[in-house]
Amino acid sequence: MPKYVIEREIPGAGKLTAEQLKVVSQTSCGVLSKMGPEIQWVHSYVTDDKIYCIYNAPNEEMVLEHAKQGGFPANSINKVSAVIDPITAE
Question: Which residues contact 31 (CB under 8 A, 6 or more apart)?
Fold first, then answer.
């Protein structure tokens, strides 16, 4: 299944409390549950003003629908063409 990196511009994201991040996560999981197993949230990285999310989904439209239903921004969605890590260098 294709993998996507979603950039969400959320001013002050890095200052969200653990409880606020929990609520955001619960909202996302609730939407995913309704959408079915075709779309999966892998994990996210929180920075000062953005959240970068990794999703498995059959297409970009499904990622956009998740953002719409959850009330999340999806400022950019990029399909991953390859994954590399230190092992790649060997």
Answer: 66, 69, 70
Q: Is 0.90 topped by the overall pTM?
A: yes
Q: How far apart (Å, rounded) are the C-alpha atoms in residues 48 and 46? A: 7
Cβ proximity of 49 and 12 under 8 Å: yes
**82's torsion region: left (phi>0), alpha (psi -120 to 50) or beta?**
beta
Tell me the C-alpha to C-alpha distance, in Å, between residue 22 and each of 12, 16, 27, 40, 88.
16, 10, 9, 17, 34
C-alpha–C-alpha distance, residues 59 and 44, integer Å = 19
Distance CA 22, CA 67 (A): 17
pLDDT tens for residues 39-54?
A: 999 999 999 999 999 9
Q: Which CATH architecture has domain 3-89?
A: 2-Layer Sandwich (3.30)
> Taking the domains of the chain in order of start, what are their residue ranges?
3-89
